[in-house]
Amino acid sequence: VILILGCDILPMTDDDEFWPDAAILIVGDRLAYVGPRSGIPPEATGRDVRVIDGRHRLALPGLINAHTHLGLNIFGAFVDDTDFRDELFEVLYPAEADMTATEGGLSALVGGLEVLKNGGTTLLDLYHHGGRTREAVTALGSRAELALMALDFDLAAPPPRNPRTGWIEDLDPSRGIRELEENVEFALTAQPGDRITWRLGVNTTDTVSDETMERASALAHEHDLGVHMHVSQHQGEVNFSLERRGCTPIEYLDRVGLLDVNLVAAHATVLPGSDVTILARSKAAIAHCPISNAKGGPIMGPIPRFLAEGGKVALGTDSTPADMLEVTRHASVLNKLMTGSVETISATQALRLATIDGARAIGRGHDLGSLEAGKLADLILIDTDQAHLVPMIDVPRTIVYNARGADVRTVVVGGDIVIDNSTSTRIDEERTLALYREAAAGFWTRRGFVPSHH
Ligand SMILES: [Zn+2]
Hints:
This protein is an alpha/beta fold and 454 residues long. It is 37% helix and 21% strand. α8 (275-280) links the parallel β12 and β13. The relative contact order is 0.15. The structure holds zinc ion.
């Protein structure tokens, strides 16, 4: 039993409540009470109650990071400021194939640590090596929905691409289907109540064959699994679909049945024709990654219009940095810039996308995303006793525009304090970073790169 006493609470409930100098009671893995001190229930007294001083702390629901690749943390900012499509084939894919289990494991561990320390309590990861990612996330105590990323070619030796279009000509469905089947095996091992659950994963619509896409849809329906994939990330992918399949990627997903399941579509930046409407009316959601889109596109996608049509949106960091508060701020300011309207994605709306609306978008609104009795005890405490956070007149605006991941002092997942005083309670951070620094140096030296500045 944990009692957090004297904190301010922004619970992100539908009626926009705010409780100053209030209390949170956690019993087991659930929230037992959230509200004014006057209403604290009797089970909050007793010898087994751990009391946390909540003065100068703002409690928020744990942030939902709907698109990560923890195993790629070791690449850092390496592919930023480049045409990422060429970089993927020439540098990233062969390097990924060359990564050892130790390097990949440490990459996932430090990637997950970064998400957690910055306030992200639930992450949706899309990558290979499910066992390695599960081990890393388990060690950290984070909540996660993992997905193996099906791909119809060999990473170690990507097949030649058509010089005119940039597309791979010979896709091998047996590769992607094998990864999907392995993914199902992981999913079937999950027990009810596990902190780690599984989705099916696919890389993109233009790196897998029709057979693999159809298999993903069949397996998702058969095992009642959500799906996680990159969708309509750039014009080249849309062109591929139009030429090969005679329709947009969104229309294609609709045709194979993948919009009838909880598909988390990362990016969805290029949505021509009726794509916005088709997607908004489906069970699918967009994982909007504004910082990644700005760096790698650079393109933002019609998020305000998609929201106006009733579409479901969660936010994601994609690559590094993995600070969800920074992503939340960018979801607001970059979309304002794109639309030329200050009313586009207000601070409150952005914070909802990072919490309750994001939880609903991934189908977890019943358990996550707001601080309400009965929900899972996933929350963060932000240190508000700092120059950039005083005075806090409008709480959502101050948090979205002024706060940073580094202001997160305490992170609770499923009733466990996994970050205390901005430090992991589960792993030795100093030792982990020392090992990682050494492993990363070895990895990059082997690939013929040394740390550089341009
Ligand atoms: Zn991605």
